[in-house]
Amino acid sequence: MSKKIYIIAAEASADLHTSKIVKALKIKNPNWEFFGWGGNKMEAEGVKITTQYKDVSFMGFLEVIKNIRTIYNLFKKTKKEILQINPDIVLLVDYPGFNLRIAKWLHEKNITTYYFISPQLWAWKEGRIESIKKYIHKLIVILPFEKTYYKERNLDVFYAGHPLLDAIKEFKSNVYFREKNKLDCRSIIALLPGSRKQEISTMLPLYLSATHKFKKYQLVIAGLSHHKSLYESILAEFPDSKALIVYDQNYDILHQARIAVVTSGTATLETALFNIPQVVCYKGNSISYYIAKNLIKIKYISLVNLIMDNEIVKELIQYESNIENIEKECKKLLNPSTRNTMKQSYKILHSKLGDGNSIPRIADYLDNEWKNL
């Protein structure tokens, strides 16, 4: 039986994980059609992309306010599309500020809605759990502590492990990586400045300034090709820098790296799963940071530390995220003792996240659920 599924995935990681789920579902159901928000990976699996995630990635309170008209227009556009497509199911992926609002409207229109990758209610806005209970048919979570969190609040959720393990398990390194990207034989210090323009603009100059003294190492920037002009403009401000940008090959970079300087986000967990010692940094708009600091109730910002409930990797946040501190932490990470301690903790982290088969389980679950709707 044919079905139409509309998806809202507005992050690089959401595009990656959702593309894998769509691929598995289409093998089971070749006549199912997928539409909505996403990126190149989802499009490659046959999703008819109506909104590219890279065009709608706003982060921070002030940034959302600045783009409020754009966001309002996105609501109008998305609602119009959904009414035109008339999907059997909507799958919301992460992006809670937008997705939980659209979920209310979907409920009013009597459209069955699933949510993949839980909003971080355990960090802030716990009251949103009532919206999930009311508007979401089923919530699929990817962090091990979330199943317990929701169970304690009388909400049964589906957990199958973290899909990053699936992606890394499938990864095959390119033996010609260095040759292809004109890298020399030195060990690599990987610089991962984030995926959003505002993150890259803030963090990359800081990383370049903090690491330029490490002459024995090759500095490699993990770049995204759709931000190419931004990286080049930043590097132009550092004419003495020997750092090289390698586009769209983050896993190959991490596979080769000695240490990494990482902007808080999914990349912190990816770096840990590649067993690479790292320092995690974050620096945002002062107003957004002040608001967040007074609202968010978690001890850590990196997924590594959150899952382990311990400071496994050093976090340098806002004013602590400066040239001197980043340089100091990089020196520590190059020390064998520090490296070994961190890698031992990574082993425990890995064991908490499953066996690398979460995508087939999620796809089987959704297949069974959606066939019965």
**Please, how many domains?**
2
| Topology, number of strands | 13
Strand order of the largest sheet: 3-2-1-4-5-6-7
Largest β-sheet summary: 7 strands, parallel
Q: What is the quaternary state of this protein? A: single chain
Q: Taking Cα atoms only, what radius of gyration do you get, to the nearest Å?
A: 21 Å
Quote the distance from N terminus to C terminus.
11 Å
User: What is the name of the CATH architecture of the largest domain?
Assistant: 3-Layer(aba) Sandwich
Number of helices: 18
Strand % is 15-25%
The fold-level CATH name of the largest domain is: Rossmann fold
CATH top-level class of the largest domain? Alpha Beta
* Regions with little confidence, pLDDT below 50 for 5+ residues: none
CATH superfamily membership of the largest domain: Glycogen Phosphorylase B
Secondary structure class reads alpha/beta
Shape: globular
User: Considering DSSP H and I runs of 4 or more, what fraction of the residues is helical?
Assistant: 40-55%
**Mean residue pLDDT:** 91
